[in-house]
Amino acid sequence: MSSDFRTLFDPQTCTRKGLCPITDIRNKGNPLESHSLYFEQHGSGPEKIIFIMGLNSSSFAWLPQVKHLSRIPEYSVLVFDNRGVGNSGTPKGPYTTSAMAEDAIALLDYLGFTEPRSIHVVGLSLGGMISQELAFRIPERIISLTLGVTTAGGHIWNNFPPWKGFNALIRMMFIKDPSQKIPILLDLLYTSPWIDEKAADDPKGRTNREVEFESYARRLEITRPQTLVGALSQMCAGLTHHVSAQRLRHISKSIPKVTIATGDHDHLVSPHNTVYLKTHMEEAEVVIFKDTGHALHYQRPREVNAMLERVFKEGRERVGV
Which GO terms describe its molecular function (predicted)? Predict the structure, then answer.
């Protein structure tokens, strides 16, 4: 039962949640590939947003965005756990970003998010790669596409993150103790000056490191532990991802509003990938967050939320409805 799943999100804003039977929708009977996607929808406004999270992170990582947007009447916010993480199933791997995009499309179909120019798509990191594949498949449904801290991919040897990022990912994969795992994660995702500064608006006067440690500890506490198969299979999806320049141009021309966002100090997806995306997505807007790391939606939540609201508005204006 979906009610049995613990959540970080506010139940007061939740309008529906559950498991989407991906395998049944696709009419595939192979039990090794059988899986469902866990999802939550918050709010019931006419502007529908689907958020697609990155490598080995559950939908709970969207907390700053769901908390903000779900309280604004015009939005319906959809978040879900990708295959291989959180409350979703873990089919046999390795995974691909195209297959994970097909999962997301099946979820949209299941929930009735099928009308032309009816959804805003937001993807970060691996979620941005999945979003590219999704956008190539159903551009006619999309009003706006926001690609954050992501890449078009290419040859597998070019898809590896910078050494600091790759080394941290491998170390964390085999560490179970949160007290050892979280410090590695924080130094990977955030800029070193910011993480040790006093947190803005924290009544306890803590540093960002203390606030974020507590936040990640809470997420790990209530999230179902990820299997090694799930972690490695998602990593394979990132390493094998590739959207060609021709497909990028098609996406950019087919969607009313495209925005590419990055931090300027990213240890997982180098900012030069944003430059490449822009080169082949001429119509796209580029937003660079200064002194910001990979987890820009946590490090700069107000700025990111404001950017998203603006992008949604501009996309809707371009559709003219």
Answer: hydrolase activity
